[in-house]
Amino acid sequence: MGPLRAAAARGLRRGGGGGRGAAPAAREGTKGSAARGGRPAPPAALHLFGDPAEVEALRGSLLAWYDECKRDLPWRVLAVTEPDVNRRAYAVWVSEIMLQQTQVATVIDYYNRWMQKWPTLQALAEASLEEVNELWAGLGYYSRGKRLQEAARKVVSELAGQMPRTAEDLQKLLPGVGRYTAGAITSISYGQATGVVDGNVIRVLCRLRCIGADSSSPPVIDRLWAMANALVDRSRPGDFNQALMELGATVCTPKAPLCGECPVKQHCRARLRVEKELALASRKLLGKLPVVPDVEDCGVGGCPLCPSAAEPWDSSLGVTNFPRKAAKKQPRVEQTATCVLERRGRRGALEYLIVQRPSSGLLAGLWEFPSVPLAPGLQQEQQREVLVDHLQAWAGQPVAAGSLRFIGEVVHVFSHIHQTYVVYSLSLDGDVTLDLASSPSRWVTEEEFRASAVSTAMKKVLRACERQRGEESGPAKGSKRKRGAKPGAAGSTRPGTQLSLRTFLRAPNPP
Ligand code: SF4
Question: Rounded to whole angstroms, what are the CA distances from 71 to 65, 97, 104, 453?
Answer without folding.
Answer: 11, 19, 10, 30
